[in-house]
Design a protein that fits this description.
Layout: H1 3-11, E1 25-28, E2 40-43, H2 45-52, H3 65-68, H4 74-86, H5 92-99, H6 104-111, E3 139-141, E4 145-146, E5 153-154, E6 159-160, E7 164-165, E8 172-177, E9 180-185, E10 189-191
Antiparallel strand pairs: 1-2, 3-6, 3-10, 4-5, 7-8, 8-9
Helix pairs in contact: 4-6
Length: 192
Amino acid sequence: MSVKDDLEARSGSTCELCTGTNNLEVFEVEPVSISGVDSSILACETCRTQIEDPEQMDANHWRCLNDSMWSEYDSVKVVAWRMLSRLKSEGWPKDLLDMMYLEPEVLDWAKATGEGLAEADKIIHRDVNGVILENGDSVVLVKDLKIKGSSQVAKQGTAVRRISLDRENAEYIEGKVGPTMMVIITKYVKKI
């Protein structure tokens, strides 16, 4: 059986967040260390759109979290916690968050994307020009960099695709330069 088949069996072919049935797809809950049923949910188009694009948020749609936050599946609870955290300024989500309990490792997973932090507390990665960097962006080196542990040098102008951000330090990103995965300081890159 595929992941989608397993999720449909688990959820009764309904969205695990709002119980909708419109255009159900597998939604992987970031960050994904292992893909599969345990790190995914079955979500409708409306929920997926609003999760991925906060600008399209309809707070009333998420009143469904009153039920789904009690799911027995960690991936569903993580998404419910993130959406309630995003909406806590509405008032009612704050009450639900206060009732919600997550095991410490599940709470760490929920917080891994920075959801729930005040804007001032979020770690923001910026390139040499001050442009905000996101996971998956491509950057170009603005300076020759020696690759630690080897005699190689990553030349200025080298493109680094699909970077990942260090969640604890705003100055560090990771990316592959050739076959080598390396940590790069953000002041030496420019977003493409």
